[in-house]
Amino acid sequence: MSFLAPESLSEQIAKYLAASIIQGKLRPGERIQEARVVNELSVSRGSVREALLILERRYLINILPRRGAVVAELTPDKVTQLYDLYISLLVMLALQVAENWRDDALDPVLTEWEKMRDLNELEDRTAFIAAGFRLMREACAIAGNTYLTEILDNLQPALHRAYALAVRYKPAEVSNAFRFFAELIQAVARRDRTAIPTIIKAYGKHQCSTVLAALAEETSACA
């Protein structure tokens, strides 16, 4: 496999390894061997080490003394903490978008939502999840909060990992997500500051419960 600009090489390696973790190819607790990654991707050890630091910052791996990089465990406590934070950040983001949007500023968000609608009908779950995160990035651009954007960017891989697990065990969850985005976008377009937190908190708790159920099922299957 070869990598090209404009992304930095370490970022591309990080995304490659992140995809393996999100898809479950690299299991929790599994060691990521630098030498194997170097040989597999024909890249330098320095670039791999930089990529591992990126993954640690994005909560997908832990770098441990004398063990090196290992895939982070996904536990019920971590899932609950992740969604508690995500719900709060998403409420903040949606309220800022509702306050800031003018004229056709919501068009890029609506474009991604339309792609999600088509992907839901095609049952392309992987592409649907990716479109959902692109929609969030478009929302961040409207909100214009650099710090919030950076925090959400760093949380995205961990959220993607958790949600992908839920979808593997309960594919119908994609349709629930589509309905959530439709309802939320309508509330943002109306600038409904009362409905926005209610919609996000209800769906966030539902999604967290779905991930926890999938995690319990996976743990039981691996026992």
Descriptive notes:
The structure is a single chain. The protein has 223 residues and is mostly helical. It folds into two domains: 63 residues, Arc Repressor Mutant, subunit A; 147 residues, Four Helix Bundle (Hemerythrin (Met), subunit A) (Up-down Bundle), CATH 1.20.120.530. 74% of the residues lie in helices and 4% in strands. The protein has nine helices and three strands; from the N terminus they run αβααββαααααα. A three-stranded antiparallel beta sheet has the order 1-3-2. A hairpin with a 3-residue loop joins strand 2 and strand 3. Helix 5 runs antiparallel to helix 8. The longest helix has 28 residues. The chain is globular and about 55 Å long. The N terminus is likely disordered.
